[in-house]
Amino acid sequence: MEKMIESFKKMIREKAEYKASRELVETLPEDYKFVYKEIEKYMFSFVVDESVMPVLMNISESFAIAASNGRSVISITGEDVGLFCDNLIEKFKVKTWVGKQKEKMNKRIHKKFEIKMNEE
Fold first, then answer.
1. Alpha carbon of 4 to those of 16, 34, 49, 50: distances in Å?
2. E strand map for the chain
3. Geometric angle at alpha carbon 41, from 40 and 44, rounded to 5°
4. Chain segment 26-84, per-residue pLDDT in tens
5. What CATH number is associated with residue 14?
6. For the chain, what is the domain count?
């Protein structure tokens, strides 16, 4: 029961943090807001779980700092915003559908050939 209560507390805390992050996004200049929403749409299209939430919160905070310093959003992301996203996904180890399918495939192959899986 205690574990369930802690889980609910964590969920409530994370929801509040995400809500604050979304409110921060709404205060950004239009260019930043547009790019953030495109990034969010891109990431939500293939992530498996909530592991993307810290990435999005990090982006909103970084964008707010950069905007307050007068930098352009493209100076933060680079021209290839998809690559920017992919690099963050890798850095933060966000779980994706592709990664999940690759993991399942490897498990089947390892089982077939009796290969021990690396435990991470």
1. 18, 38, 19, 18
2. none
3. 80
4. 999 999 999 999 999 999 998 888 888 889 999 999 999 999 999 999 999 999 999 99
5. 1.10.1900.10
6. 1
